[in-house]
Amino acid sequence: MVKKLLTDCFRHHVWGYKHVRLLKQSIVALLMFFCLGSSMQTFAQDNPWFFGLHTRSNSVWTNDILSVGSMVVNTGIAASIEGALYTDLIAVDYHYVKLEDNGEEVDFKQNNPYGFTAYDLFNDLEVGFKVGWQGAETPIGLYVYGAYGINQYKLRFLGERDYSKHKLQSVRMGVGVKISPLRFMLLDYGWCPIIELGTTYVNNFKYKGPNGNDKDQINNGMRSSYAIGVQFGERGNYSIMLGMDMLHYDIFNRNYTPDGGFWYPYANFSSKDMNFNLSFCLNLW
Predict the structure, then answer these.
(1) pLDDT tens digits, one per residue of 64-88
(2) Residues with Cβ < 8 Å from 218, sequence gap 6 or more?
(3) DSSP states of 17-34 as a string?
(4) Is 216 exposed, middle or buried (0-12, 13-18, 19+ CB in 10 A)?
(5) Which of 89, 119, 126, 195 is most buried (most C-beta within 10 Å)?
(6) Mutual orientation of helices 60-81 and 27-39 as an angle, nearest 10°?
(7) How far apart are alpha carbons 122 and 207 in whole angstroms?
(8) Which residues contact residue 31 at a Cβ distance below 8 angstroms, ignoring those fewer than 6 apart?
(9) What confidence score (pLDDT) does residue 92 get?
(10) Per-residue pLDDT tens for 164-201?
(11) Exposure of 285 by Cβ count < 10 A (0-12 exposed, 13-18 middle, 19+ buried)?
(12) Which pLDDT score is estimated for 146?
């Protein structure tokens, strides 16, 4: 039972356990993304600030709806404040996760990214706001964001017949920078390389599972992200990015003890979490 709780918390932050996972985005969202982007006008040549929704989800359908919805909302915000428009869409996600407790593995029932149950639709859901600055002619852009995250997992440990359901909620705060050191190439070649670096603090404030709801069983910590890609368009309005992110802490608290120091259920636990993705970004001034 303790192992159950253990894996649950870990699975909250990742899309696969001891697996590589591929999330294919719906072609409908991709088409709408580029069609809407190509039809939008430039709102303000001199205002480099942008403000809008930030969303993502493990479910293809939920992610599509959130992505297109946030793009429409962000477009309205940009028009009303005469600011820049920035929005992105995760097209493909490749996630590797590994959890070990003295070499033993825990089985879990993966949600179906194309499914329509509540467990499928509301998995690895993240909704928040992003504020940033990106000049049309400058090689550097900065942003900060805050988001609420929720995950659900069904786990089965060795010797158990049934899966148990786990739910974890978190608040995430992050900053990032985009760098285009060779932006002058846009004039001559119509494209230029771009690099993005970011870091996020994850605060897991609530957990619910079969072994109790004590959130002291899990850790909080930093997550970093790295991406490289290509900007294209007259002013670098579009970009395609290949990125990765990784956690820098173990999900479970090795020092946690439920009985005053006699038993440490997570003392031998370790975890790895790395995510690779392909995203499309739109930036209009």
Answers:
(1) 888 888 888 887 877 777 766 667 7
(2) 9, 168, 204, 207, 251, 252, 253
(3) SSEEEEEEPPHHHHHHHH
(4) exposed
(5) 89
(6) 10
(7) 16
(8) none
(9) 73
(10) 787 889 999 999 999 998 888 888 888 999 999 999 99
(11) buried
(12) 96
| Residue listed under structure tokens 């003295």 | 102
Please identify which residue in the block is written with the tokens 């946030």: 70
At residue 127, what is the residue type?
V
Contact 206, 169 (CB under 8 A): yes
Name the one residue in this structure whose structure tokens are 């899966």.
Answer: 163
Q: Reply yes or no on whether the pLDDT at 263 is more than 80.
A: yes
3-state secondary structure of 76: helix
d(CA 82, CA 77): 8
- Nearest to 66, CA basis, from 147, 170, 166, 142: 147
**Domain ranges in the chain?**
2-284
Question: Any idea which fold 2-284 has?
Answer: Lipocalin (2.40.128)
Place of tokens 């970011």: 198
The pTM of this model reads 0.79
Cβ contact 191:184 at 8 Å: no
